[in-house]
Amino acid sequence: MATITKVSPLAPEAFPELPAIDGVRFATVEAGVRYQGRTDVMMAVLDPGTSVAGVFTRSATRAAPVLDCQDKIGGPYDGPAAILVNSGNANAFTGHYGQTSVAEVTQAVAKATGVAVERVFTSSTGVIGEPLPHDRIVAQLEVLKSGLNRHAIEDAARAIMTTDTFPKGASAQVEIDDKTVSIAGIAKGSGMIAPDMATMLVYIFTDAHVEQSALQAMLGAQTDRTFNCITVDSDTSTSDSMLLCATGASGVDATGNDAFAQALETVMLDLAQQVVRDGEGATKFVEIRVTGAATDADAKIHGLAIANSPLVKTAIAGEDPNWGRIVMAIGKSGAAADRDLLSISFGDILVAEKGWVSPDYREEDAAAYMKGQDLVIAVDLGLGEGKSTVWTCDLTHGYIEINADYRS
Question: Its Gene Ontology molecular function terms (predicted)?
Answer without folding.
Answer: L-glutamate N-acetyltransferase activity; L-glutamate N-acetyltransferase activity, acting on acetyl-L-ornithine as donor
